[in-house]
Design brief:
This protein has three helices and ten strands; from the N terminus they run ββαββββββααββ. It is mainly beta and 180 residues long.
Length: 180
């Protein structure tokens, strides 16, 4: 990954592009992976580094598509789409998606980051890494809603101990106790 990225890994695209050309990355999510985000404020963040040769201009998009039924692979419903400005050098892009635009995530989704060459021709050289797709807890609190913690995650707080590793208090001579 380029210097300035949060993670160690990144995907690279090197693509010769003329006006109207498109290059990008995508990720599919099964419904069970994102159902707890359905109807919630979400933040998508990722590391991005890009350069464009030939004096060309590029417009960047973040798009989110949903299925019409649970995991049917249609991705025909546009839930959210926006343009964004990439960092001048390697940096983090963070985009808030409002709750109204996440209704339908429970059926599965397809997220993509796309560069569209708007003028000229040249080569796009871009890296993308450390993609995070998560509930925006701060926005939910400001809206008055409690942060959502799925029950299966809430039950796993703290260290887990097997039945054979329970702590027991043992009385020692003289009234002292010890954990074992």
């Amino acid at each position: 990954a380029p210097a300035g990225f949060r993670g160690l890994n990144a995907i690279r695209i090197q693509a010769p592009m003329s006006a109207g050309s498109i290059a990008g990355w995508g990720q599919r999510f099964e419904g069970q992976m994102v159902r707890d985000l359905d109807g919630k404020n979400v933040v998508v963040s990722f590391d991005l580094s890009q350069s464009v040769s030939g004096g060309a201009t590029t417009t960047w998009y973040l798009q989110l598509f949903g299925n019409t039924a649970l995991d049917n692979g249609t991705f025909s419903t546009t839930l959210f789409s926006t343009t964004f400005t990439p960092p001048a050098s390697a940096g983090v892009v963070s985009i808030a998606i409002p709750a109204a635009s996440t209704v339908g995530l429970k059926y599965g989704a397809y997220f993509r980051v796309v560069a569209v060459r708007t003028s000229g021709s040249g080569t796009l050289d871009a890296y993308l890494g450390s993609v995070q797709f998560e509930a925006d807890r701060l926005v939910e609190r400001l809206d008055g809603a409690a942060p959502s913690i799925p029950p299966q995650r809430a039950a796993r707080r703290g260290p887990r101990r097997g039945a054979g590793s329970r702590r027991r208090r043992t009385r020692l001579p003289g009234g002292q106790s010890a954990l074992g």
